[in-house]
Amino acid sequence: DFGSSSIHNFPFCGIQKQQSVLTMTFKAVTFVVAGLVAIIRCVVIVQQSAFAAKITTGPPPGCVPAPHTEQHSLQLARYSFQKTQQGSPRAQPYIEWMCGAALVLLAIPCRAKAWRYKCGQCMPKSKPMCFLNSRRAMRYSDLNQHGGTSLTGAQCNLVERRRAQRGRTVLAAEESASWSRRDQMLGIEEQVQQLWSEHSVFTADAPPVRTDSTTSGDVPKFFVTFPYPYMNGRLHLGHAFSLLKSEFAARFMRLDGKHVLFPFSFHCTGMPISAAALKLKAILDSRARSDDDDDDDEEGTAETVAHSSVMNAEDPAVPTTFKAKKSKVEAKTGSLDQYEIMVALGIGPEEIPKFVDPEYWLRFFPPLAIHDMKKLGTAIDWRRSFITTDMNPYYDAFVRWQFQKLRSQYLDNGKRQSIFSIATQQPCADHDRAEGEGVKPQEYTLIKLRVKVVPGEWRESLGDGEVFLVAATLRPETMYGQTNCFVLLEGNYGFFRMRNGEIVVCSKRSALNMAYQELVEVQEAASGTIEPVCLLEKSGKDLVGLPLKAPLAVHDTIYALPMLTISMDKGTGIVTSVPAESPDDFMCLKDWKSRANWREQFGVKEEWCLPFDVIEIMEFPDSDGSTAAAPYVCEQMKIGSHKERDKLAAAKKEVYMKGFYSGVLTVGPYAGSKVMDIKDQIRNDLIASGEAVPYFEPESRVVARSGDECIVALCDQWYLKYSDEQWTQRVKAHIENDLNMFNEAAKKNMLYAVGWLGDWACSRTFGLGTKLPWDEQWLIESLSDSTIYMAYYTVAHLIQGGELYGSTDGKIAPDAFTEEVFDYIFCIRQDVPADTAISTELLHRMRREFEFWYPVDLRCSGRDLIQNHLTMSLFNHAAVWEDPSRWPQAMYCNGHVMVDSEKMSKSKGNFMTLEEAIQTYSADATRIACAGAGDNLNDANWSRETAAKSILRLTTLQAWTEDMVKRLPSLRSGELNFLDRIFENEINAAVTQAHAAYTDMLYGEALRLVWFDMDTLRSQYAILTNGDVHHEVTKRLMEVQMVVLSPIAPHVCEHLWRNVLGKQSFVVREPWPTPAAVDGILKRQYEVIQGSLRFFRLELDKLMSPKKKKKKEQAGPATKPTHAVIWVAKNYKQYQQDILSVLQQIEFDAENAPVDPDFMRTVKNSEVMKDMPKTNVKKAMSFASFVVRNEVSIRGPAALDLQLPFDEDSMLKDILDVVKAQLGVPNIEVCDAEREHPRGCDSQREAATPGNARIAFFVDVPEPAAA
Prior knowledge:
This protein is an alpha+beta fold. It is 45% helix and 12% strand. A hairpin with an 8-residue loop joins strand 16 and strand 17. Helix 1 (21-55) runs antiparallel to helix 2.
């Protein structure tokens, strides 16, 4: 296994001559000691693994491996390896070899390979095991069918490696029959996918224009899209869950008679790929340097684990490969650097260095995504696929055209405050962020508190400029109530010179924001960026007691006091104190005034705080006006100290809201004005007088994908004016009147986002993408170039010829697609452009494709894109096409997906790529689990147990269908009997309800109807007919289920449709079944039959399982009843009829719940209750509650009918043989509940109501024979 590695990897080979004898001795001793420890650990763990392999053939599908399985052992091995590594970092190369040797000597090469990958490629690469080679040809048979894109050898190796790393014992699973059902499904799926590909089942073109009555015209169409995924890794289960919403919709609409287009593409624009490539390059360079340092420096450092590199002598094309190792911090936190992320993706060490080129990502991941999507069975027209960025010159031309359309009215240029990444020196848009998506710049007012007496020793560093402590506030109108300011004792504060010569004191973090907002003087940093010039540094302790002159304050002098809860990560680290309107300020000032021990401990003088009382500056018309807001709320909430952060946060929210909306100023020139009316004016006055300046910070923490925490910078850039009032109103009107969001909460979020979005920076200088056509120093950011690309889908196959990357070989030159050409194709101009290299015929054809398919009928997405992509898509459609009929017609949003009720995470062990899910559970089982996971904005739960059980159910359905097809000729035929008609009616009802569920995108409900309910129908039909099923009903049930289940589980349905039912067509192209009108009476009869049988069985179970008797009494075995009497009530009792008449007047909502939750009071106060005999009142109230909560909630208002629409007595007599067989009671009679019976049992007889028959069982003991 290690034969191919270089001899220089072995720790005692190739030793440098200049190394001392002492060094060699140290290495030898370390090697022996650390190696022995590692061997002992590995032997124990591997023995556990070997023992586990003997007692198990691998976990069943969906099960989390139990302790002592191989996966668990490998995790323990990795942990042991890391611990040993941390204890002896210099001995790591020797430990690696000893661990590897231990595994090889124990003859477990496959586990050694898996363990090597678990440890992050820490040992030399081995060859694939023979049991993997046996299936290699079969697995690669479909890899090169990707719409013109082939998988490279590296990509094929990645697919194979990821399969080898599945969370089970690979060898055991290959040899075990426990996975045979899953493998059977995978085989079916491969065959079906090959069949679809050969017949181009999912390609769709616009039909010819109608010219006369004989030609095909504009049939109903359905165009559905899903936001193209970002290509910085493999697709995972989260992608699958969301995109399957589009997939289910596309397949259903095809069955429903629509001409369907479902295209798919790949997003590569933006920072993430470029940032990851730069990180990887830095890591590789760093590890190469540290490897050189290890050779030259024997001492090393205690903080960094050296990263070794080896020269691969056998492959000159791969100059260097590296072994992944973690620092101590990374080992403790479990964090992964970019190299380790690549390893975790299953990419080999020889391949990783290629990813320092961003374009390599674009070549590597999209073909793998196509491969995974095909394995999932998606109904996508792959001819229309493309990648973004200028690597695809045709899409690049499309985006340039889009921005030319926006430029005239909706684009502007200028300096704007933007979230900014210092590392990349450009604005950081939402999709460029690792943390903080949706966060915008927050505007503050920077209040300047002048230091009245500057300590003399500071002047040498500061010069003669005036010094100000600066506090960032959102409430400048409250500055009239200042009594002091606060600093953090242990905080680190800098002195920075502003551009006007004044000196400000604040935190270094806030000064960095000021530097990029052109507020303070700057200098070039070592990194080549800018940084503020720091004149002097002091701690907060040094600032305490400074006398200050505060703007608008009543007091001429206030002082700086300590506050123990200030955060240096927000604002400037200095807080101006207004105790009347800030609970934090009030409690802190109160603490200093009342706690003499605190003043003594922290050196706070009495004159700095005791003379300063709360200054009331507002009144509130809805209160007595005698108490300032903050002191009043703190007293009500019983807050005892300014350290009680949680209580103060709640108090702050209440006070701030009250002050803004209800407060009326009582001081200053604006006394008598409402705060909300004069807030901005006071701020403007402070800025105009030079006592304040505007200042910005991110609303909350933002981290760029490059890894740096973002600031707010004043940037010269291009931006989209989403704040334009007319533009905004057009979009809002479309959302309110024409856009189907399937969910009111989603629509409200969308309307909010339209007003919230504001101006959007759409340009940057770093990353991948399209250049602005009129200013090519700028790239268009990744959200702004992804808003109307759905229009490009309609013509992509004609422009790119089905080639993913837009190769120009033999095609029309990209520069032929001018603004005039795109205007014609996308119906913005009517006349064919002159002087174009594109033929008129092709132009007409492209225009026809757009005219037919547009607008987008459905756009599916995760809820997180409401605040940016989906809203921006509507804005951009409104900008390019004036006619709202060209704008998206529906948008469906779902929540995030969890796995087994936990957030999907690698650290939790439940992260699953799409390929892993398919290989573990099959595509159809994965799809079924996604369909049942959830349908609304809440987070969904994908269950591994559901996926595993679905394999069993799918193969059971297959076996039953195959068996019934063989038996069809022998089944009963002729006229349908009562039970046949009932089940045929139930099939019609299920088809009708499933159609409604699919239409409303309630896929969990649709799955229940077409999967679980139809399976139940199948079994109940056989049970109630005692196996004597009808030929036509059985055949229809099979055919109908194959069609209606096919949107969710298409592979097994296609297989059964063609190969078992013998159909020549494709089930995915079949029309939706046309059911007869549902017979309500037959449906009610089925409900009564099922309900009655269920009740009868429960009563029999009670009889056969009597309650335990007292001690010392022996309970004899229950005797099987020989007789039973069923009582059927034709009418309700009089008091019940009266109650039903009252309930018929109650209003019920769509969920069959009373609109008035206190409906029982209405019943109690009704006239019929007043006249009712007291003996019936209690029974009547109980009956009313039961009917509403148990009957109406299920069946709706029909449950309040006074009589059944059929003869229940005759119906039960007709199926009496079925009842006898179900209960195993040979003698059963059906009796009228209004008549007494010789056997008595009046309680059961009186309990019977229409539709709720009651039963009593008897054991008749035969008389003894005559003597």
